[in-house]
Amino acid sequence: MDGAWYASWRHLFKLDPDRELSDEALDAICMSGTDAIMVGGSSGVTFDNTVELLSRIRRYAVDCVLEVTSLEAAVPGFDYYFVPLVLNAEKAEWLIGRQSEAVREFGQLIPWEITAGEGYLILNGEATAAKVSGARSDMTEDEAIAYVQAADRLMRLPIVYIEYSGTFGDMSLVKRATKSVSQARIIYGGGIDSVERAAEAARAAHTVIVGNVIYSDLESALATVQAVKETSLVV
Predict the structure, then answer these.
(1) Which residues 6+ apart lie within 8 Å of 184 measured at CB?
(2) Contact predicate 63/111, CB 8 Å
(3) What is the pTM (predicted TM-score) of this model?
């Protein structure tokens, strides 16, 4: 994990190609000091709107990673790529089906050296990602940790993304997940809309992702960068 390209990332902003963002807001985001910009979304993501967003981000020196959620939006030109595997999906296509289809069709074109598997554990049943993938979010903490450890130790996934999209999650669970992994990096995302929540998440996870608040309260979003960077991981 220590030598990987994502190993030093503590704070990421996540931008959705299907949502409007002014040039002024994008400038503030890209110049904020965040470690990287993640591009991705659960619905409405197309090749065209992904290319458009990438072209706007490319004016800045910040690292940019694409979360590849569909073949149609697999856009070349990003610095890095995350390929999600929904660990708690009830539909197998979201765990390995779509991913194997992509490898079959584009295997020779995939830049493996800048691509990493991302095990998703979606714990908010109301989130769009949960509904699309059929993720079983009503699990106990022990069950959730078992998923994390299976991803880490059996599947050897380098990234485990604990996603509460739209709501602030259980930081004791996130902290326990971080403590339980042997080589994976724990990413947390969901409901971070203040410096207090950003710091709390930074104490629990290796990497913190801030997304929705960008579109509702940009100043609060920008403040999370320093909050995360000044907070040490405590597990």
Answers:
(1) 1, 119, 148, 151, 152, 157, 158, 159, 160
(2) no
(3) 0.91
